Amino acid sequence: xxxxxxxxxxxxxxxxxxxxxIDLAVDEGEIYAFLGPNxxxxxxxxxxxTTLLLPTGGRASVAGFDVVDNAREVRSSIGxxxxxxxxxxxxxxxxxxRLQATLQGLPTAAGRERADALLExxxxxxxxxxxxxxxxxxxxxxxDLAAAxxxxxxxxxxxxxxxxxxxxSRKTIWEEVRALNDDGTTVFLTTQYLxxxxxxxxxxxxxxxxxxxxxxxPESLKGEIGNPHVELLIAEGAVPEAERVCxxxxxxxxxxxxxRVLLEVANGAADIPRVVRxxxxxxxxxxxxxxxxxxxxxxxxxxTGHHLEREEEERKDAEETAPA
Amino acid sequence: xxNLATSARVVRxxxxxxxxQTFRRPQLIxxxxxxxxxLLAIQTGGAGAGIELPGFPPVESFLQFMLAxxxxxxxxxxxxxxxxxxxxxxxxxxxxxxxxxxxxxxxxVLGRLAGTAxxxxxxxLWFLAIGLIFGAHVEGGVPGALLATALITASALAVGGIxxxxxxxxxxxxxxxxxxxxxxxxxxxxxxxxxQELMIEPAKTIAEYNPFSFIVEGVRGPIVAGxxxxxxxxxxxxxxxxxxLGLVLSARALRHRLRVG
Lengths: 324, 261
Known about the structure:
The complex is a heterodimer of chains A (324) and B (261).
Chain A: E1 2-13, E2 16-27, E3 31-35, H1 42-49, E4 57-62, E5 65-66, H2 71-77, E6 78-81, H3 93-103, H4 108-121, H5 137-148, E7 155-159, H6 167-182, E8 186-191, H7 194-200, E9 203-208, E10 211-216, H8 218-225, E11 229-234, H9 239-249, E12 260-264, H10 272-281, E13 286-292, H11 296-304, H12 308-321
Parallel strand pairs in A: 3-8, 3-9, 6-7, 7-8
Antiparallel strand pairs in A: 1-2, 1-4, 4-5, 9-10, 11-12, 11-13
Helix pairs in contact in A: 3-4, 3-5, 8-11
Chain B: H1 3-24, H2 26-47, H3 62-91, H4 94-99, H5 106-133, H6 141-170, H7 173-177, H8 180-188, H9 203-209, H10 211-224, H11 229-260
């Protein structure tokens, strides 16, 4: 039985259609990753599925309950950890989990017991009586995750659970998500990290500009793309010549930047000597070469015509260089 | 556990959080305690001879007269602080955590108002204590002190409702904070700090119809003279009107927020 069913779901903000009639189904016990850049409609979809926002079209059910008609039943069945960990910096970790237990209707004694157990589970027992404002980003995410689990929900929504975290903290969250899933919890997570979707998800939905452009297991999606490619870092000034040579050898993929040439190779590693020889004969200096198997970014490029990760990097660069 | 009992627990827990939040954030507690206390000290110290003016109502001391005004000011700033704290919750996404829980959503507003009402109670007790320490008497005795405290507590809930409605509607702490001067204007255009009889037009007429004047007089009466049924009923009616307005506006703003996300 599907834990989440979405049919033609839409959300408009004035003239802007943020989510444009999406369909998806997530089975019980599955980890489903919703992958897409900022502004693609991921968070809007999660907010509709968690009853925080009314849809303007279509329908959706979570844990067997309609998100509009049976919103309260949906809220009893789900755990939600929202983007940017919506935590009160003035509360202590213990106070937050106990409050969450009260919100979920747990009796006081059971709530206290559950809070202690969860704080231990996410490794925050020692910091439980410190104010959340003193926590690191990783600790905040773990606390947020613990709060979402207080009533043992059957479906867990994680909105960009690792955005902004260092690699170690990210891996800790991944391990916790896997452990929860092993216990039978259905997980619906949004992410802009390809690796996260690839590592965690049973199924991935790629969303771009409010529409799902591809859906399937990470392997099947990558399989659709087909061949691996060679990523060549070319010496300065030689990129046009390298592109000319490579075009004769196979299909060029959209470049990541002005220094690299991406050439699809049907036979994988076996094609590399041929490529190197051709470039060498043309006098093109290759500074480095890497065989790259299809990734979810390739799937994203194939389906949308642009790179997910580069878009995110450009956005971050723009944010960092923007005047205050 | 019944829905009502669960909702009551939620309101109590959110009210307790709201009180803790206020005491842990100096910019929220300072307007409630420090500012009105300083103003009370300055006014009673500098304008104490005002009670000698012809037409000034008979009071034991200027401090006794001013206690109701100080309580009102503190109570109104508690309502404003409650609104700011609610708006901060919205800005940082904390209210999403509450809205995603299986509780009646109005319990979230009531929880905030319970906290604001508790701060009103604190304000009333604080200024009663200051008054008693510095020699003012409560002419209505213990029942009078209890009545003044109850009226201030209920008024905090009423004003908190307006603050919560504005917070829900705008979702902006700076907008709610921007209402701070308005709170003072409303108070100065009431009989909080000066007897209506000695005001000049148009302030006198405005004060006469200002619902906060009715509340001030309802609180001041038991302190300076004793309990008066008419004054008390007028204060209760004014509070009920503001409570109703606050709840209606909050309910509408809540619906709006849930519609637009």
